[in-house]
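Suppose you are handed a protein chain with no further information: no name, no annotation, nothing but its sequence. What can you learn? This example shows the usual starting point.
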Amino acid sequence: MDLRGKNVVVTGGNSGIGFVTARELAMGGARVTLACRNVGAAGAAAAEIARATGNGSVGVVRLDLASFASARACADELGAKLDHIDVLVNNAGTYTQGDETTADGIHPTMQTNYFGPYLLTRLLMPLIEAAPAARIVNVSSAMYAVGKLDLSRPSFLTARNGFSAYAASKLATILFTQELARRAAASRATANVLHPGLVDTKIMTLRKWYDIFIRAYVDRHSVDVETGARTSIFLASSDAVEGVSGQYFVDCAERDPRLSRRATAMRESLWARTAEIVGLPAD
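A reasonable first move is to predict its three-dimensional structure. Written in structure tokens, the prediction is:
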């Protein structure tokens, strides 16, 4: 894809793999918008990207994915600024412990990693479908493989610890991407999902006794953010994936996520239940 003049939105683009993704897409000539919770940090990141790439078309909008109101306000702001979106990279994510919920009654990890991106993406679909051949890129994790979802329980969680919530959110992200790809098939928009590798982006808040062991493992085995961003950049810009949709990628290559029959059968009901919770129609 020739990125020159394309409208690109990257959530969580002020740091980590989101920053690298935004920088490289700006380097290709895209008009990049960083959608971030901390607009001060995002402004500094936008300025740094502009200096590094010579691309002055790097902007900022506020987005707190742990708030449905913020996701709606962000979609409204993007709608006022852009007439279409060529690439949406749902990159922002978190790992939080504890049993607290957001103002919307959702576990913070599930809302930031899944419910918020679902809501934002659906609200932005008119802008996405207005582009000639838009791409939606969702960042998941190999942790999806141990994720469990129960649509009858709060936040769809079978357990409310941070590890379980993170894994569940990443499974939900894959199922959402697959269902989104199916529903968007009539347009030229594509949706794909990826595992960036074990990247130490410091999103984890240490609150439980066992988190120290998770932190030690991450410190020992993680890759740097430049490596972690490669698949996001590939899916957002490569001609090799033109027209490819509903697929799972690792190291810039298509992989079979080997989902269970139960998980695969859950896609439509997950979509419908999520729509109900975020206040959207299922169709």
